[in-house]
Write a structure and sequence with these properties.
Herpes Virus-1, binds zinc ion, mainly alpha, 3-stranded antiparallel beta sheet, 3 strands
């Protein structure tokens, strides 16, 4: 970039700031012979000589007044250079004087250049929302999630959908999802960015759920705000993410809701939940939950096959009474009878073994006694 080479100072590449250099390229090229000392340049926002230099009292870093104000109101409460929390910004009178004496007053070309920058800032619509505002936002806030949504809505007025969009994307990219959600809630319902933004937030929460599964609850809360077409496209991602967690009851509630709203029509999704219950170590409560889930399957054959699998698992773990109760869920008479007999069979052989064990007790007792009474040799 011509301008940054000229002033000999690099722009922090990690700082995602609105690029204000675009419209000013022609201006820079025709003034290539202008040399601006690095300390007079806002090298984060405007990349130009500072017309109204301001400094952050907490760290002394300086920026163009309008640019740092916009940053404070809508993006962040920390210094873009050193991440210091900003409690106050003040005009840097000393630097302003220096710029006048050591740059503007030096030549007619410099003065013309300075005035051009000043006019450009004055006409820049990007700053209109903060121009007449106090230097610091009314509430002194340190976290982006608490930024003033109402102030932004009021400041942007009719241009809210267009002007808020980059701010929402910025908040999402920085992980300030609560703030992004609040801003997006204010988008007009029909606006094509609204669902798009919500979907991005859902993806972020799904990503975060790898660390903490409870983030899926937040993803679901945003999903509820989507139009039904977008819900169809996002259902699978959230449902699959739920399956990967231990939140199977939440997965089922989420599926119930989608089926009720006709987002999903295929009840075979319930079998994915049952498969997980069956794959886990035996636990009667889980089997009872699996039975409840199986009752929602609309395909009779699939339903029957799952009830049989669940009954077997309960029976294999010797909970025969519960296995009988489970077999009762099979609506078809023959199938039910067959399953009953299987459970009864396992129960019988198990109890016979126990009875046999009990029946032989006296003989074993005598044998033990005999061994014990035998004198040691
Ligand atoms: Zn700083």
């Amino acid at each position: 970039m011509a301008s940054s080479a000229r002033i000999g100072s690099a722009v922090d590449p990690s700082a995602k700031r609105p690029d204000l250099t675009e419209g000013k390229k022609d201006l820079s090229e025709e003034d290539d012979d202008i040399k601006i000392p690095t300390e007079f340049v806002d090298d984060v926002f405007t990349l130009e000589v500072m017309v109204d230099p301001y400094k952050i009292v907490d760290c002394d870093h300086g920026f163009e007044k309008l640019a740092i104000k916009k940053h404070l109101y809508f993006y962040d409460r920390v210094c873009p250079k050193c991440r210091a929390e900003i409690s106050k910004i003040v005009p840097d009178e000393e630097l302003a004087k220096k710029i006048q004496e050591e740059f503007v007053a030096i030549s007619e070309a410099n003065k013309t250049y300075f005035d051009k920058i000043k006019t450009a800032l004055g006409n820049d619509k990007d700053y209109d929302s903060v121009r007449d505002k106090p230097d610091m936002p009314a509430k002194l806030i340190t976290r982006e999630d608490d930024l003033d949504v109402d102030a932004l809505v009021e400041a942007l007025g009719d241009s809210y959908p267009t002007d808020a969009q980059p701010i929402i994307l910025h908040a999402i990219s920085r992980g300030n999802l609560t703030y992004a959600e609040q801003l997006n809630d204010r988008m007009p319902n029909a606006h094509y960015h609204k669902d798009f933004n919500y979907k991005l937030m859902i993806d972020e929460y799904i990503h975060l759920s790898i660390v903490d599964a409870s983030f899926l609850k937040k993803a679901e809360k945003i999903y509820d705000k989507l139009t039904s077409n977008s819900k169809k496209s996002k259902f699978h991602k959230i449902f699959d993410a739920y399956l990967k967690t231990t939140y199977l009851i939440d997965a089922e509630t989420f599926l119930d809701k989608a089926i009720k709203a006709a987002i999903v029509t295929d009840t075979s999704y319930y079998s994915k939940i049952i498969d997980i219950y069956l794959s886990k170590e035996f636990n009667l409560t889980n089997m009872q939950l699996a039975l409840k889930t199986a009752s929602k399957l609309s395909n009779a054959k699939t339903k029957e096959s799952y009830i049989t699998k669940i009954t077997h698992k309960i029976s294999d773990n010797k909970q025969y009474i519960d296995a009988f109760k489970s077999a009762k869920n099979i609506s078809h008479f023959v199938g039910r009878l067959f399953l009953y007999s299987l459970v009864a069979g396992s129960a019988m052989s198990y109890y016979l073994l126990k009875i046999g064990h009990g029946f032989l007790y006296p003989f074993r007792a005598i044998r033990t006694k005999k061994n014990r009474s035998k004198p040691k040799t």
